[in-house]
């Protein structure tokens, strides 16, 4: 590291500590959703390959979860692979799935966090399904941050799966469609989401400068605050994370009002 980079890093770290000291963590988000965007563009800008970009993005996850531990976050949902991504060419999808599998296995092996898959499991290759299921089993009793790994995830797919599960449940009970229509409310559907039993995200962060949700947690984010960060995910720093928390703390949440 040259002198210029060393000075710049020191300044950023000093600023991050300053921002952190001024945060009121009692008002911080308890559930954060993160759209990890910009891996390919980061790699292109650095003269690397797409695979290198995804690998760098995966390496950032544990670091970010450490920041969450420091600031009292209880649940983190990481969007690692959308249902749309499953249509990518095999020469890109296969390495990406391998990187995701390694990342999820690493989270489980650390013993620090409880891993939970959210997404359409049946759309994923058997090897990926195996890794996700084993990570859930191994970390089931871990008393740490609940980390939802959204793999093969789409917001519309989740709602469709929730409705399908609801209909199947009432079908087994012998409930008629007419009777179900009479009693159906939003809580019935919420009980069949991938994140059932969890609090909805207070804050959704998207990196890379894109200002859209792209279908991420459509149901759960109805009252979430959004923070769009310009930096690509592999370059996401602690100061960027703390800025997101500072921005969240400065807002007056109206919950739809």
How would you describe this protein?
The radius of gyration is 19 Å and the shape is globular. A six-stranded parallel beta sheet has the order 3-4-2-1-5-6, sandwiched between helices. The chain has a single domain, classed as Decaprenyl diphosphate synthase-like (Undecaprenyl pyrophosphate synthetase). The protein is an alpha/beta fold and 257 residues long. The chain is built from nine helices and six strands. Helix 1 runs parallel beside helix 9 (238-250) and helix 3 (50-70) packs parallel to helix 4 (90-110).
Descriptive key words:
single chain; 257 residues; alpha/beta; Undecaprenyl pyrophosphate synthetase; 6-stranded parallel sheet; 9 helices; 6 strands; 49% helix
> The biggest beta sheet, please?
6 strands, parallel
Rg estimate, integer Å: 19 Å
CATH class descriptor = Alpha Beta
Coarse morphology: globular
Tally the structural domains: 1
**What is the N-to-C succession of helices and strands?**
HEHHEHEHEHHHEEH
Instruction: Supply the CATH superfamily name.
Output: Decaprenyl diphosphate synthase-like
Count of helical segments?
Answer: 9
What do the pLDDT scores average to? Answer: 91
What's the CATH topology name?
A: Undecaprenyl pyrophosphate synthetase
Class inferred from helices and paired strands: alpha/beta
Number of beta-strand segments = 6
* Fraction in helix: 40-55%
**Beta-strand percent range:** 5-15%
Could you name the ranges where pLDDT drops below 50 across 5 or more consecutive residues?
Answer: none
Distance between the termini: 50 Å
CATH architecture: 3-Layer(aba) Sandwich
| Arrangement of strands in the largest sheet | 3-4-2-1-5-6
């Amino acid at each position: 590291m040259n002198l210029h980079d060393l000075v710049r890093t020191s300044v950023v770290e000093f600023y991050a500590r300053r921002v952190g000291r001024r945060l009121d963590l009692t008002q911080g988000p308890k559930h954060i959703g993160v759209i990890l965007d910009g891996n390919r563009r980061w790699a292109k800008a650095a003269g690397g390959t797409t695979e290198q970009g995804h690998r760098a993005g995966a390496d950032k996850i544990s670091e970010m979860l450490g920041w969450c531990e420091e600031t009292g976050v209880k649940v983190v949902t990481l969007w690692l692979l959308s249902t749309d991504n499953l249509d990518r060419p095999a020469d890109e999808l296969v390495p990406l799935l391998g990187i995701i599998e390694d990342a999820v296995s690493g989270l489980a092996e650390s013993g620090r966090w409880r891993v939970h898959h959210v997404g359409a499991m049946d759309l994923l290759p058997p090897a990926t399904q195996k890794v996700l299921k084993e990570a859930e089993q191994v970390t089931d009793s871990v008393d740490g941050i609940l980390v939802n790994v959204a793999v093969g995830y789409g917001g519309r797919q989740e709602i469709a799966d929730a409705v399908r599960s609801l209909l199947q449940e009432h079908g087994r009970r012998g409930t008629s469609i007419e009777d179900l229509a009479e009693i159906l409310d939003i809580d019935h559907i919420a009980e069949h989401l991938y994140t059932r039993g969890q609090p909805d995200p207070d804050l959704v962060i998207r990196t890379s400068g894109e200002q859209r949700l792209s279908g991420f947690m459509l149901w759960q984010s109805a009252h979430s605050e959004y923070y769009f960060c310009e930096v690509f995910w592999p370059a996401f720093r602690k100061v960027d994370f703390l800025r997101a928390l500072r921005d969240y703390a400065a807002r007056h949440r109206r919950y739809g009002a």
